[in-house]
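Ticket 4471: requesting a sanity check on a complex prediction with magnesium ion. Repro inputs:
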Amino acid sequence: MSVQPAHAQAGSGQPAPSAAGPLLELRTVESGYHKQLRVLKGVSLSIMPGTCVAVLGSNGAGKSTMLKTIMGLVEDEPRKGTVWALGKDVTRADTERISQAGIAYVVEDRGMFPDLTVAESLRLGAFHRNDRAAINADLDRMFTYFPRLAERLKQDSGTLSGGEQQMLAIARALMSRPKLLMLDEPSLGLAPMLVEEIFRVIRAINREGMGILLVEQNANQALAIADYGYVLEGGRFVLEGTAAELRSNENVQEFYLGVRTGGGEPRLHVRRRRRRWN
Ligand SMILES: Nc1ncnc2c1ncn2[C@@H]1O[C@H](COP(=O)(O)OP(=O)(O)OP(=O)(O)O)[C@@H](O)[C@H]1O
Ligand SMILES: [Mg+2]
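Returned C-alpha cells:
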C-alpha cells in the first residue's frame, strides 16, 4: 500500500496514457474556486477499465470538487496538472466533449429535471445516440436494475422519492453508454435498505465491465464493492491501496469505518487520537 502523498507522483513531463490504458487518469491536479481558493492540492489517480475505485473523504475534503473538475464544470480549472480520459487529454475541455469521451457523472444532488417524466429523463440520457433498437434494449436493462422506475414512467421526476431519484440519476447516466460512471455520494440521505439496493446495482454494473469512480463518505459500503481506494483529506490523497488494504488500515477503521481500535473500555475525556497516515 502506498502512503506517498499524491503530489510526489507523476510529473507533467510523462508521456500520454495509451487509449488501451486507464479510463481516467489525473496527474497532480490542482483545482479550486475563484482563482484564489485552492481545494485540490495535487491529486493523482488512475482507473483501469472494468475496475471500481472509491474515493473516501469527509465533508469538505474536496471530493465533489474533484469530480466537477474532471467534468470541466469548474471554470478555468484545473489550474495545474492534467486530466486524461481514455487516452485523450481533456484538461479544461468542454463538459460535452468529456462526456462524449465516455465519462458519465451522477451529481451529488442527483440533478433532476423536475418537470420531465421518468421516461423523458431516461431518453434525455441517450440524446446523443441514434441507435434506436439499442436504446430500447438499454431501457429494458434499466428496468431490470431498477424495477421501480418502470412503474413510474409517466411520473414527473421531481415528485420521485430521494431513493427513486438516485435510481433515475444512475439510469439516466447509464443511458449514455459511458465507459466510466462517476458517482458522487449515491448513498447520501438514503435509508440503509435503499443504499444496499443501489450498491447492489453499482456492483452489478461494474461486474458487467463498466469502470466506476465512487466518491463516498460511506466507507463501509464503498470498500465492500471497490477494488481500489484513495483517502482524500484537505485536498490531498493521504492514503491509497486495495480495498482490502484500506479496510485493514487502523486509521481507516477508526475514522471512516467506525471501528474502535486500541481495545479496552471507553474512557471519558480521552483525546481523539490524531490521524497519522505514515
Ligand atoms: N462553488 C464554490 N465556490 C467556493 N468554494 C467552494 C465551492 N464549492 C465548494 N467549495 C469549497 O471547496 C471545499 C471542498 O468542497 P467539496 O464540495 O469539494 O467537498 P466534499 O468533499 O464534496 O464535501 P461533502 O462531503 O460535504 O460533499 C469546501 O471548503 C467548500 O466550501
Ligand atoms: Mg461533495
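Notes from triage: The pocket of adenosine-5'-triphosphate (ligand 1) is lined by residues 33, 37, 39, 57, 59-65, 108, 217 (CB under 6 Å). Leaving this open until the requester confirms.
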